[in-house]
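Journal club side-thread
Mid-discussion, someone asked how the predicted structure for our own chain would compare to the paper's figures. Pasting it here so we can look after the session.
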Amino acid sequence: MYIYYDSKTGNVQRFVKKMERQRSDWHFIKIDPNMKIENEGHFLTFTTKIGEVPEMTDKFLENENNSKLIKSVSSSGNRNWGVFFAVAADKIQEKYGIPVLMKFELSGTNTEVENYINYLENNYK
């Protein structure tokens, strides 16, 4: 399983670290805007500037090859933002057609990490 991610404040990175402890055989790859991926995978990002897609995330997904290989998007956010909570995932779905899998607050709870892992293992073999 390939998990690509973008993290600025460390929340998404902490979510990924929780998964790494449980799934050491998965591949966790922090993106850079110029990388071109070769394997299908799932994408984790964050919401910035109260409802915006991070610039690096957008540049990464603008590469048509990358966006076609991403099977789901999930975003962290802060519930204090109300309707803008983790809305980057919705904007990515709208712009690139990548389905939203999950929205989680900050670095996610252990239950959210478990739910994420279980969903991927049961729906994307």
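Post-session note: The two ends are 8 Å apart (CA to CA).
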